[in-house]
Amino acid sequence: MKLRDVFLVPLAALPSLFPVRAEIPDVPFSGAYGATSGAGSLSGWDRLGGDNPATLGAPAWSVSAAGYAPFGLDDMHVVEVETARDAPRWGASFGVRTLSAGEGVSVSLFRGTLAARLGERWSGGGALRFGVGGATGRDGGVGGGLGMLWRPRSFASLGAAWEDGLIGFGADCGSDFGGAGGNAASWRYSIERYFGAEGEFRHGFGLRLHSLLSIYAGFAPARETASLGVRFGAGSWEGFSALRRHAALGGTPVQGVRWTRATGGEGGEGENEKSRAPPSSRR
Amino acid sequence: MFGLAALAAFACATALPAPSLRFEARPTLAAAPGGGVLWSASVPCDDPPAMVGARVFFALDFDLDGAPDAADTLGVSPADCGSDEGDGSRVALRRALRPAHAALLRALIVDPAGAPADSHFALTAGAGSILSISSYCARPKNGEPEWIEIRNNAAFAAPTAKLRLEGRAFGGAFPGALEPGGVITTGADTAELRIWRPGARLVALSSWPNLRNSADTLRLSLAGGLVLDSVIYPVGGAWPREACVSLESEEAAASAHGYALTLPSPARWRPRDAGFVIDVRAPVSGRYDLRVYDLDGRPLCALARNAIGPVAYALPQASCPDLGARRGPVILHLDPREGPGVRRTLAILP
Question: Would you call B326 and A21 a contact, using CB atoms and an 8 Å cutoff?
């Protein structure tokens, strides 16, 4: 057995020991992800709602909420609420995602993350989540996750996360154009690969046109889903609106809102302002 | 004197034996292997000599104009009374038909002299497959007129002269023809129909109280009595609860094409329990898939692929072996080859 296996084997066994079985849509919708079919989640495109617990934002308090009816089904509703606190060297978040699906079905998933900067180009984090089943008798459970983010160059970043039997690797690239600093426009492309029982590819594209407006698109072939959406806002508030379209099941319109209050420190107000952009200028 | 004659005539009529050349029971239509429909009927062998030279003529009428657009024929022989398919007292008849479109099928049995003896009418696809009641407004708001919309789902223009719309106390006739995809919207009386022209929408100008009755059935039929589509008004509560009821929903749109997906209520399945049956209603020649998805839209399995006609699927199914291991909601999607699909959520319990 090689040395690395000593570390990997216990990590691989962990999800099976603590399965989270709350049956809710597990692809994130909050923030940009409603418009990217979840892509960019491993690469840390958005502070809230992502799959990678190593994601950090500029020092700030932030709260995000989103709601949607999967595929427009009348009897099914999902609400996501998440709040985060980021400091210069660390960040923490807590969120809940609740599904009510009629027929007595009501399921909630709670998730907390803790992330830390590990030098200039690295960050790492962990997640703890537990599910609460409703009248379905669906088991709740406790699960954990780990994540890493590495940004070796200004135009590229790599992320990896493992959670509940699913391990994913993501990479993104992009660049700024047409300006400087917080006013620069930018584009970003992300590709992610998840391995496990529900493994899949996700592709995402983000185009920041202005500090007030960004456009996103995503494609997830395994879920037969493409999506398009916008983020817009001013000051502390911003909204996001997206439409995910499934090839057979129809569309899922998503609406949400986010409030952010910068707390200064390293990065400060200016960096927080950049957080509406695809993340090339954010981390 | 006249009364006695009438009584004698009635007595003679009732004493006459039933015609020997006839369809013994209502002929049936079912999905034929390889596509199309299988027409089945039986003819009693009461008078075998009368059956010599008898034939059954099939006429398929795609545009409801009364003229056959495709035809077929089937011989009837008394020798078949003792065949494997007959039990000696009747002849079993079967004919596979392959209509290119949804059609009105008329089966006519004629005696050796060519005189019609009995006939049978049916639609080769589900109700609403040719002409459907696509929407209606059952109780207008603020004095707006009540109205009913009829849509032509066929690939041919459908003459509407023989069309009838029947509520509890209403019967009306429409002139002209309705183009493929066209709609008629009509109201209370023939005065409003006079300003209707084929292909145009007509909104009734006055209130029409006929649609106010809960549980009434509104039928769209041909003059001969064949029901092309029907709608039962909603039941329950302090009727009317809604100002207007639209059939433009996903479910109604699928129903107009003859498809429906029905789950037991409540739609909760415990894998260890038997007897959970998913009913699929489909035209006898209609092909469809029935797939299962998770809430992220990932396809989990298919209960049916390229299936034909109405089928009942009892869970668990061998085609979805892992479904019983899941917990929580899944989405069933009935996906017809033609027309809109239907979605249902199913909660899987531990």
Answer: no
Alpha-carbon distance of A91 to A113, in angstroms, equals 8
Q: B331, A71: Cβ pair inside 8 Å?
A: yes
Report chain B's mean pLDDT, rounded to a whole number: 72
- In whole angstroms, give the CA distance from residue B51 to residue B216: 44
CA distances from A168 to A148, A283, B194, B298 (A): 11, 20, 68, 17
Residues of A in contact with B343 (CB under 8 A): 71, 73, 249-250
ipTM score of the complex? 0.84
Nearest CA in chain B to A29: B296
For B36-71, write each residue's pLDDT tens digit: 888 888 888 888 888 888 899 998 888 888 888 888
CA terminus-to-terminus distance, chain A: 37
Q: Which of A21, A71, A97, A109 to mutate: most B Cβ within 10 Å?
A: A71
In tens, the pLDDT along B260-274 reads: 888 887 788 888 887
What residues of B are in contact with residue A166 (Cβ under 8 Å)?
A: none
| Chain B contact for A198 (CB, 8 A cutoff) | yes
- Chain B residues whose CB is inside 8 A of the A75 CB are 345
Q: Which of A256, A51, A282, A3 has the alpha carbon at shortest distance from A151? A: A282
Cβ separation A137–B298 shorter than 8 A: no
Q: pLDDT for A219-235, tens place per residue? A: 999 999 999 999 998 88
β-strand pairing of A225-234 with A213-220: antiparallel
What single-letter amino acid sits at A59? P
A206: confidence class by pLDDT, cuts 50, 70, 90: very high
Q: pTM for this one?
A: 0.61
Which residue in B298, B333, B345 is closest to A198 by CB distance? B298
B151-162: per-residue pLDDT in tens? 777 878 877 777
Closest by CA position to A135, among listed B265, B328, B296, B345:
B328
Q: Cα distance from B182 to chain A (closest Cα, Å)?
A: 26
Grouping H, G, I as helix, E, B as strand and the rest as coil, residue A191 is strand
Q: CB contact, 8 Å: A24 with chain B?
A: yes
pLDDT tens per residue, range B103-141: 888 889 988 888 888 888 888 887 778 887 776 666 555
Minimal Cβ distance to B350: which of A75, A138, A225:
A138
Q: What secondary structure letter does DSSP report for A212?
A: T
Query: Do the bridges between strand A225-234 and strand A237-246 make them parallel or antiparallel, or are there none, so unpaired?
Result: antiparallel
Mean pLDDT throughout A159-187?
85
pLDDT over threshold 60, residue B143: no
- A31 and A141 in contact (C-beta within 8 Å)? no
In chain B, residues with a C-beta closer than 8 Å to the C-beta of A103 are: 266-268, 345, 347
In whole angstroms, give the CA distance from residue B327 to residue A22.
9
